[in-house]
Amino acid sequence: MMTMNTMNNGTIPASAAFERIAVIGGGSWGTALAGRLAANGRDTLLWAYEPELVAEINSSHTNSLYLPGINLHPTLACTGNLEEAISGRSIVLLVTPVQVMRGVLKQLAPYIGPDVIIANASKGIELESLQTVSQICGELLGDTALSRYVALSGPTFAREVAQELPSLIVAASRSAAASQRVQAVFSCPCLRVYTNSDVIGVELGGAVKNVIAIAAGICDGLGFGHNARAALITRGLSEMNRLGQAMGAQAATFAGLAGMGDLVLTCTGDLSRNRTVGFKLGQGMKLTDILSEMRMVAEGVKSAESVYQLALRLGVEMPIVEKTFQILHEDKPARQAVIELMARDLKAEA
User: Which residue, 99, 102, 100, is CA-closest to 306?
Assistant: First the structure.
C-alpha cells in the first residue's frame, strides 16, 4: 500500500501547509495537479486561458474541456489573470505547452519574486531555440532562478492522478531545499514524490519519451506486434540515454521514473495522446486530420523535430527519433521507415 512520502526526519514539514501555490495552465495535467494540491490542503490558484473554463471551475468545480467526469476539490479557485495568479505565491508551477512557455514566462517575469520556487511539469524541448524549460527560465529570469527551479516528471496520466490512483513522480532541482519543498506540498497517500538532482536528465526524459511513444503507436497501428514494441521501447531508452550523456545528464536518471518509467507508460498506455497519434498514423490517417480531432496537445509532434535537431547539433545518433521526425514532418511512409530501421548496419548492442 502507498504511504505518504516524508522528508528526512520522517515527517512532512509544517511549513508545507502554508505554501501558497499558483498553477499556470488549465489543461488536463495542470488541472489534475492543481486539484491534487487543493485536496492536500494547499492554498492553490489555477490560471486558465479560456474564460469559460475559469467560470466553470469556480462555479462547478469541474473542467469539462480537458478533464471531463472529474470533480475538483471545492477549495480550488481559478483565474484568467496571470498577475493575480502568482501574486503572493511561494511556488509557481508551470504546466503550459512547452512551445508557448517562453511567451507565458515573459508575462510572468515581472511578478515573480526572488524567493519564489519555479516548478515545471510540462514536457518537451522548445523548437525555436532547442532549449529545455530550465534553460528558457535561466535565459529569461537569470541564472539565479535555476537555484529555485524544480522539474517534475514521471509515469503519470492526468486522469489517474485526478482519480487518486497510486502514482509516483520525481522532483528534480539543483537545490535540495527547493525539491524538498515541492516534494512536501504534493506528497499524499496516492502520490509519492522522490527528489533528484539531475534537472536536465529529468527534462530530457520527459521530452524524448513522447517522441518514442509516437513511434511505438505507429508500430502498433501497423500491427507489428509485441516483440517490435518491446524492442522499440528498449532502443528508444538507449537513444534517450545517449542524448542525455551528451548534455551532461546522469545515466541513472533514465533507468528511473522520469526515464524508463515514463517511457513505458507513454508507449503502452491507452490514455497516451502521443501513442494515439502514432497509432492513427500507423493505420494510415494523415497527421493534420489526427490533430484536428484532438483538443489536447500531443507534445511529441513538435518534440520530434526539436529532439531530432538537437541530436544533429550534438552529433548524437538517434535513428528512431530521426525516422519518427521523417514520418511526421517529411511524409515518409511509416512502413518504409520501419524497414529502413531494420536494415541499418549490424553492430554490437552496447
Answer: 99
CA distance linking residue 21 with residue 285, whole number of Å: 41
CATH class of the domain whose range is 207-342? mainly alpha
**Per-residue pLDDT tens digits for 226-263:** 999 999 999 999 999 999 999 999 999 999 999 999 99
Q: CB burial class (10 A; 0-12, 13-18, 19+) of residue 216?
A: buried
Q: Where along the chain do the CATH 3.40.50.720 domains lie? A: 14-197
- CATH architecture of structural domain 14-197: 3-Layer(aba) Sandwich (3.40)
Residues forming CATH 1.10.1040.10 domain(s) in the chain? 207-342
* Residues 53-61: contacts with CB under 8 Å, at least 24 apart: 53/26, 53/78, 54/26, 54/78, 54/79, 54/80, 57/26, 57/31
The label of the residue with cell 490533430 reads 291
pLDDT tens by residue, 193-217: 999 999 999 999 999 999 999 999 9
What residues are labeled active site? 209
Cell of 332: 515518409
Kindly report the pTM of this predicted structure.
0.93
